[in-house]
Amino acid sequence: MAETGTDIHKAANFLEKGELVAIPTETVYGLAANAFDEDAVLKIFETKKRPAFDPLIVHTHALSEFQRLCSSIPDMAWQLAERFMPGPLTLILPRSENIPLIVTSGLDTVGIRIPDHPLTLELLRTIGFPLAAPSANPFGYVSPTTSAHVEAQLGTEIPYILNGGPCRVGLESTIIYVRERTVEVLRPGGLEISAIEEVIGKKADRIHTSGSNPKAPGMLSSHYAPRKKLILGNISANLEKHGPDSCAVLSFSKPVTGIAEEMQVQLSVREDLHEAARNLFAALRKLDELPVTYILAEKVPETGLGLAINDRLERASA
Ligand code: TXA
Ligand code: MG
Fold it and tell me: Most CB contacts within 10 A, which of 71, 114, 146, 273?
């Protein structure tokens, strides 16, 4: 049974022994292991039941650590790192030989991120090695945004959950692949793409990934999914079709008529996309627990963080 607490030294101890620890970040909770320890990293894949072709992000605490994690950094990537790290951004960079291939699923690139959470930054400084960490959920399920979410699903499999409270952003990091002349968005996430484009001074290419696209092997079209069937579209029309008894509702800001209040969640009554992002995964988990067959959801406005929210809703419904 996992112990949950805020003891950085305890967390450090487990990690040094090659054990897994759940860590808080500003985006979602991660399931962390010493990125230099192949056996520890293997435990991540086993615990999550994650396919070996899906590479992990490496977490560190400072830009000065990049030299031992990647072999070079394009200028534009460095500009993004200086501007947005720590923060909800992952950069795909050429892999340093220090990073075991199990971390990158054999790719010659590595995803690197500096999480913006005081406990985890202190932990990273204490241990002195980087942490490989995917989101701390069973493969394909909704990412955890509280320590209780982690406990509910992985509590029996790991020794320690570092409790940093609810995640401030609530959506996974934006993943960007910068090469000499191109900037590609592999996954929209907690950092708005417009902010990235402002720094690089041009449009970023949006890559539509799937299970067969080797650029982001983990961006399967069905992912981030509750167990209930999620139907994305016009909620009222779908409610009429399936009937209120078999449905729960996830709307953006307004309650839907024709179904009980306790079967509904609004992502943000004041139509704030940051609040909606923060609430999304907890809402999906809550509705997934209700005795219904379907979760009816609608898209949010496709601006700012709305892009990433809609991306998750689409994958959840695939
Ligand atoms: O916010 C986040 O990014 C969270 C927190 C814990 O840091 N982590 C996270 O990890 O969402 P995960 O494993 O659930 O998603 C990482 C994604 C995967 O889809 C994977 O395919 C992609 O990053 N990825 C990692 N390394 C890559 C690489 N070298 N090239 C392309 N995609 C990569
Ligand atoms: Mg994940």
Answer: 114
Structure tokens at 119: 């406990």
Counting from 1 in the atom list of ligand 1, the atom nearest the Cα of 107 is 29
Token pair belonging to 296: 């009816």
Residue 139 near residue 50, CB atoms below 8 Å? yes
Task: Report pLDDT for 206.
Answer: 87
Report the alpha-carbon distance of residue 246 to residue 239 in Å, rounded. 9
Of 90, 177, 184, the residue with max ligand 1 atoms within 8 A of its CB, to mutate for a pocket test, comes to: 90
Pairwise CA distance, residues 223 & 181, whole Å? 30
Residues, beta carbon < 5 Å, ion ligand 2? 135
User: 218: Cβ below 6 Å to ligand 1?
Assistant: yes
**41 Cβ below 6 A of ligand 1:** no
The answer to whether the beta carbons of residues 120 and 23 sit under 8 Å apart is yes
pLDDT tens, residue by residue, 3-47: 999 999 999 999 999 999 999 999 999 999 999 999 999 999 999
Q: For 35-76, write each residue's pLDDT tens digit.
A: 999 999 999 999 999 999 999 999 999 999 999 999 999 999
Tokens representing 29? 């909770």
Residue with tokens 């496709």: 302
Q: How far apart are the first and last CA of the chain?
A: 33
**d(C-alpha 54, C-alpha 32), whole Å:** 15
d(CA 287, ligand 2 centre) in Å: 20
- pLDDT tens digits, 236-283: 999 999 999 999 999 999 999 999 999 999 999 999 999 999 999 999
Question: What letter does residue 167 receive in the DSSP assignment?
Answer: -
Separation of CA 4 and ligand 2 centre (Å) = 21
% of the chain at pLDDT higher than 70: 95
